[in-house]
Amino acid sequence: MNKENIAVGLDIGTTKIVAMVGKRNEYGKLEILGIGNAKSLGVKRGVVNNITQTIQSIQQAVAQASAEAGCKITDVVLGIAGQHIRSIHHQEYITRDKPDMVISEIDIEKLIAQVQKLNMLPGEEIIHVLPQEFKVDEEGGIKEPIGMYGRRLEASFHVVVGQSASIRNAGRCVKDAGLELSGLTLEPLASADSVLSQEEKEAGVALIDIGGGTTDLAIFKDGLIRHTAVIPFGGNVITEDIKEGCSIIEKQAEQLKIRFGSAWPGENKDNEIVSIPGLRGQEAKEISLKNLSKIIHARVVEIIDMVFSEIKAYGYDNPRKKLIAGIVLTGGGSELKHVKQLVEYITGIDTRIGYPNEHISGESAKLVSRPLYATAVGLMMESDINNSRSRLYVQEHPGNVKIQPKTEPLTKSTETASSNIQMNAITSDKSKQNIGDESNSEEQQNDVEQGTKEYIENRFLGKFIKAFKDFIDKAE
User: Fold this and answer.
1) 255-290 burial, b if ≥16 CB within 10 A, otherwise e?
2) Among 62, 343, 390, 459, which residue has the fewest nearby CB atoms (within 10 Å)?
3) Helix, strand, coil % in the chain, rounded to nearest 5
4) What's phi and psi for 326, nearest 5 deg?
5) Tens digit of pLDDT for each residue in 411-442?
6) Where are the beta strands (DSSP E) in 266-375?
7) Which class for 60: exposed (0-12), middle (13-18), buried (19 or more C-beta within 10 A)?
8) How confident is the model at residue 475 (pLDDT cuts 50, 70, 90)?
9) Cβ-contact 371, 331 below 8 angstroms
């Protein structure tokens, strides 16, 4: 199996770690080849707090996915979440030296590079710089400025920021698990890619991803990301409330929530009772399902109110008119019974459950037809996009790939320096490439793959990924 066609997403959540392997088929859909699940023991509210346990969980999930897929997993696209994530809105502009030439991708990159230089709070780093709308000279509301003429290029940006230590700890776990980090994506954006249609993003939609440790919000309008936020409460606090309210252990509370839990207490009758086995010979404990639903209801209402307040604080005082496509719920918490009806009751906005099967082929869709896999599917889709860019570059620029001579091994410092150089050097002496020498074909292919990988890091993954990788290498 050609490893270049394999896409791998890694979702490091508070309750679970999921590794998902897929491959695009001849119909343009992704086919799931393998899924690995492991209990997340070293993560709290989306942040790694135990490196060793997290590494072990990653290795377990990756090994399971690799065995199912029948291939070796070498690199992954990692999802980032947690209460340390915040977003800001920023406007930036550049003045072009040659307004008689059309605006190109280079101008967009210069503009994004300016935003990357923003001063953050101590210990913070920029994760994503997402252009929203452009303005060329005095003409605003432009979505795609490439090909236009103008001197002043301006844009509004959605900038996602996170704590450097938290992000690097997650990256360290991936690296120590024996994997390469090929991409870094905010988890609500990955979930949105897997469960939202382009029509919904155009009309206006709020994605609410209820995870184990956090609840993530992403608002889209006119096809663009408008706002992201992280609420530091998720399914785990519901479990904790059940544990305290019913005086049972955490494992029993989680099972109660999954099997009998409901966000709407009016459904249960007073005489509906469930029996919980006692510990070490103690008598069984009887719990009223109505009381259980009341406990769950109180916490879910709190979470929804916080998310709804965040939507209105963004500027949507009347979100029902602005969010024409309504609210889409996803994540493991959205599988709670009657949570959809409760969200509609509180917000007055049409709501649906988001299933990540739109971009997956028929048979494979059955494997991931649960909202809790939304993030992993989105990360796998991002990995596939990275692979497509890599293949496209090799096809369009076969002579531009930087080939390092094997006779002169590079030192570590030289490797780091050379990776900053874009691959635009073309070897003029064809005899030096040994094209006709079959003994060197494998080495050349490895060089091409390495060069392409460096190009993808420089061109598409941005300065943050590269700086992050350099930091990990220096730490070693």
Assistant:
1) bbbeebbbbbbeebeeeeeeebeeeeeeeeeebbbb
2) 459
3) 45, 25, 30
4) 80, -150
5) 333 333 333 323 333 333 333 333 344 444 44
6) 273-276, 285-288, 327-330, 351-353
7) middle
8) low
9) yes
The average confidence (pLDDT) of the chain is: 82
Q: How far apart are CA 65 and CA 36, in angstroms?
A: 4
Distance CA 361, CA 381 (A): 13
Structure tokens at 9: 């997403």
> pTM of the entire structure?
0.79
Tell me the C-alpha to C-alpha distance, in Å, between residue 23 and each of 18, 112, 137, 383. 17, 31, 43, 10
Nearest to 73 by CA among 144, 19, 135, 111: 19
pLDDT at 471 over 60: no
- The residue written with tokens 């620029």 in the block is 397
Distance CA 339, CA 197 (A): 22
User: Helices marked H in 330-461 — which ranges?
Assistant: 339-347, 362-365, 374-396, 412-418, 441-456
The answer to whether 79 and 379 have CB atoms below 8 angstroms apart is: yes
